[in-house]
Specification:
By secondary structure, this protein is of the alpha/beta class. It has two domains: 154 residues, Medium-chain alcohol dehydrogenases, catalytic domain (Quinone Oxidoreductase, Chain A, domain 1, Alpha-Beta Complex); 149 residues, 3-Layer(aba) Sandwich (Rossmann fold). The chain is built from nine helices and 15 strands. The longest helix is centred in the last third of the chain and has 14 residues.
């Protein structure tokens, strides 16, 4: 094959926000597939807060990215060469293909997707691990019940925006916490959240008292830090807290520990960590329901797409930590 593959590799483990020195840009010829392999031309790369955690030395729920390795990332693309019995040239696929233009793979963890049913970026968001995280986190870990009051932080982000919509679909009340008037208006007016709290201009604890006078039955946390502390002051008896992420802490030199954790004792509440990979044997079930809701117009999917090349990955990743994205952040290679 004559194509050159441009890649982004992890050069060093950052302290705090990743910088230019964290990355190495490389290129190499695309290797032709051997029996049992195929080559994917990547079109869209998923940009996720979890990437920052994968850069650390560990321990974590997944092995860290090795120094010198292509940066781990979910991606979608089209098969352009194949010696694999289950994948043909022209197939569109999703997998952990990395931050690069082409991926040579044996198909482990790779699934076919249908671009006629939904745009390819949607398979990185609502119909991908993002949507699955929201689905299992809220319904299984959060044990959502009809009539519950649910609050979600990072509500204008990839996971949070889906969490609030699923809560409404299931007959619960959804309160979203987001940064800025524009994001709050989007989750309230377009996504149908019952209330939106702007953490940049409002006292979150006071706003939660106003919007959830009887307390929170479920709190879905994507940010940690002071917002988690505020939510802990507003728990209903038997509340369930879902710990999905802590984007406010990923680049912090010292992690902010919850100061109101005794509320768990007082309210007989639970706080449970959630990793979507634990539900792999049920992905098909959840994907089918998410797709049905999308088709019925009950669920809105929004992808915040940045067009460019793999060299644009470092700055695109930082958009997450600057709070600049709305919905699922995706790098489109063109």
């Amino acid at each position: 094959m004559s194509e050159l593959n441009h890649q982004v590799r992890l050069a060093e483990r950052p302290t705090g926000v990743p910088t230019a020195s964290s990355w190495q840009f490389t290129e190499e010829p695309v290797s032709p597939p051997q029996p049992g392999q195929f080559v994917v031309a990547i079109s869209h790369i998923s940009i996720d807060p979890a990437m920052r955690g994968w850069m650390n030395p560990g321990p974590s729920y997944i092995e860290p990215v090795e120094l010198g390795a292509v940066m781990r990332a979910g991606a979608v693309g089209r098969v352009i060469a194949s010696e694999h019995p289950r994948f043909s040239v022209g197939d569109h696929v999703y997998g952990a293909l990395g931050v690069q233009e082409f991926a040579l793979t044996d198909g482990a963890g790779v699934t076919k997707v249908d671009p006629t049913l939904a745009p390819l970026p949607t398979y990185l968001g609502t119909l991908g691990l993002t949507g699955l995280t929201a689905y299992f986190g809220l319904l299984d870990v959060g044990r959502l019940r009809e009539g519950d009051t649910v609050a979600v932080s990072g509500a204008a982000g990839a996971v949070g925006s889906v969490v609030g919509q699923i809560a409404r679909i299931k007959g619960a009340r959804a309160i979203g916490i987001a940064g800025g008037a524009r994001k709050c208006a989007w989750i309230r007016d377009e996504l149908g959240f019952d209330a939106a709290i702007d953490y940049r201009s409002e006292d979150v604890a006071k706003a939660l008292r106003r919007h959830a006078p009887t307390g929170l039955d479920v709190y879905f946390d994507n940010v940690g830090g002071e917002i988690l502390d505020a939510a802990l002051t507003r728990l209903a008896r038997g509340a369930r807290i879902v710990i999905c992420g802590a984007v406010s802490q990923y680049n912090a030199a010292k992690v902010h520990a919850p100061s109101n954790y005794l509320a768990l004792l007082v309210q007989r509440a639970s706080m449970t960590g959630m990793v979507v990979f634990d539900y792999a044997n049920r992905y098909a079930e959840a994907s089918a329901e998410l797709a049905r809701w999308l088709g019925e117009g009950r669920l809105i999917s929004r992808e915040d797409i940045v067009s460019g090349g793999v060299a644009d990955f470092p700055d695109t990743l930082l958009k997450l930590f600057r709070g600049e994205n709305t919905g699922k952040l995706v790098l489109a290679l063109g």
